[in-house]
Each structure stands twice: as structure tokens, then as C-alpha cells.
């Protein structure tokens, strides 16, 4: 902004100088007209004297030389010099060599040769391209520096959020396993009634499977995963079973509705990452309803030949307007203690891995509605595999 402000002042000064030159030419024209129309014999001489004064006032460097390069007159030079001395004569002769390289002299060198330089305005105009190039280079450099710093900050924030998310996902099954160990350390008389060995084994197996799933998720997110034909309704049904077991801890009155037909065409994807992406959106809705209750609906339809459209809507307070455009940025969260990595991971998985789309759309009434589009696999009518 400072450079632009200075550049505007500089160009305005040039415009004002050119306007002054136009006024000076007009005065010269007026002097000539007056001399031509005057009946006085001395008028031409007076007019020529005035014209010479006007030309000197223009600021153009002028050097008049005679025979043998004798300096007869020097006006508007960029330095002070005494042409009555040999040193002064040599200095001016050196100067007019530079003038002659740009502007050929006028007149007869045997009688009177006039060497001239550029007007001050032309000299200042020569700097315009350099100033523009310097401004462009400065702008590019500043933009590059800002983008580099911003990317470094975002990368650090994303890695910090990923580390916290990993700790969070590992914490739940680890806490459950710790609970099972405490139960196993009790004698049969001290254990809760009705809790048998088979039930404990199933619980431990589920927690171990959950730990393995978390490990596979973070292993896949850092590289290009293998994609295969996936029946989306299987992924959602498995996720539904997982979520329903945990609904009670989100408070009373949370109702989950799933409407996903079994005959949907397959998509090319990774079932582990797809389940993770959808789980993040569902958890976002569950957090919005925690303590107050409400409804969450999951609906999937095959709207055209290319896309499956999955809609996840809740009746919570919705997303504040000031962050709607940044809802998928890493580190952005409205939850106290949240890390803002869930929706960012969802976008990376849906868009970056599966070539789909995910967006927050305008819903009806309160709440938030997320729409996810996944491309249908080619030859989707063929036998399916790749379930969870």
C-alpha cells in the first residue's frame, strides 16, 4: 500500500509537469504570434529573446559549441561548471558526448552546434517501467513469503490436530480395556452379577478390533489407499451399529434415523476411510445435540447415473454464519476442547481420496445439513464386494 501510494504521487507529479510544459509551449506560441503581428522593428528581436527565456525555463540541458568544440554556452546542466576554464570546458565536452549518444546535435559544427538532453519529465518517465517491475517483484515476494508462512502454520496446526485426534480415538478403547482388566482382576464373587467370561471376551475383542481400526485409519490417511468396489449401505449399517451403542452418553432424546436402500450401486472407495469420514460428520451432529436431544437423519439416494448423494442432517443449533465458509478448515471448531480436525479429514477423504464432494448446504429450519456426493463405480450392476 505504501508503494502504491508513493507511485500515485510520483505519476501525479509527472502529469503536473507535462501540464506545465503544455502551458509553456502555449506561451511560446503566444510570443511568436505577438512578434509577427507587431509593427515595431525591434519586435522580432524582443520576441526571440523571450522565446530563448521560455526555452531555458523548460529545464532542457543545452550546450552550444563553436569551431573546434569550443563551449560557447551551457544551460540547465545537472552540475555547476565554469566554462571559462580549461577544466570546465573538458568537463562539459565529456558531458555532451553522453548527450549526443541519445540525441543527435542540431546545427553546423563549423559555426554553431547545439547539443541537447532530455526534458526532466522524460528522465522521470524512464523510471516508470523500473518502478512497475520493482513493485511487481516486491508484491510477488511478499505474497510468496506470506503463503509460505501460512502453509507452515497450517501444517503445524494440522499435525497437532491429527496427533490429538489419534490420542482421542485411542483413548476410548484403551479406557474400556483398562475397565475389563479391572473386572478380570476381581474374584467371581466380586464381579457384577450376570457378567460371564464369554461376554467379557466379546467386549475385549471389540475393543481390540477398535484399536486395530484406528491404527489402519491413520495408516491409510498418509498414503494413497487401494480403492475397490464398496456397497455403501454396508458401510453405513456398520457405522449405525457403532453409533447406536454410544447414543446414551450423549444425553436423552437423541434419535437416529437411517434411510439407505440396499440396492444402491457400488462406489469405488476404501471402506475404512469412508466409514471414518461419515463417522466424523455424525459425531459433529451428535456433539451439536449433546445435552438437549434432537434428531439426526441419514439418507442416501442414487439421483443420477454418476453420483450417490448422502445427506446427514440434524436439528441442532446449526453452524454460525461467520464460520460457514471455513467449516472444513483444519483447527476450526466451535466446541470447547475440540480440535477441529474431523470435518477437515472428511473433506480430505471424500474429495482427495474418492473424488467426491462434501459441503454444508442450506437446510430447512434449524440444524446443519451436510451433503456428500460419491461417484458411482463403473459397471455398478456387476457382483459387488468390498463390504466392511
How do you describe this structure in short?
It is built from nine helices and eleven strands. It has 388 residues and is an alpha+beta fold. Strand 10 and strand 11 (369-375) form a beta hairpin.
Describe the structure in your own words:
- With 388 residues, the chain is α+β, with helices and mostly antiparallel strands.
- 52% of the residues lie in helices and 15% in strands.
- It contains nine helices and eleven strands.
- The strands form three sheets. The protein has a five-stranded mixed β-sheet with strand order 6-8-9-11-10.
- Strand 10 and strand 11 (369-375) form a beta hairpin.
- The longest helix is centred in the middle third of the chain and has 58 residues, at 127-184.
- The chain is rod-shaped, with a radius of gyration of 42 Å.
- The two termini are 57 Å apart.
- Residues 381-388 have low confidence and may be disordered.
**Approximate shape:** rod-shaped
Major sheet: size, sense and barrel closure?
5 strands, mixed
Question: If helices are DSSP runs of H or I spanning 4 or more residues, what is the number of helices?
Answer: 9
- Pattern of helices and strands: HHEEHEEHHHEHEEHEEHEE
Termini separation comes to 57 Å
Give the helix proportion (percent range): 40-55%
Radius of gyration: 42 Å
Q: Number of DSSP strands?
A: 11
Strand content: 5-15%
- Side by side, the strands of the main sheet go 6-8-9-11-10
Q: Report the uncertain regions.
A: 381-388
The class by helix and strand makeup works out as alpha+beta
- Give the integer mean of the pLDDT values: 79
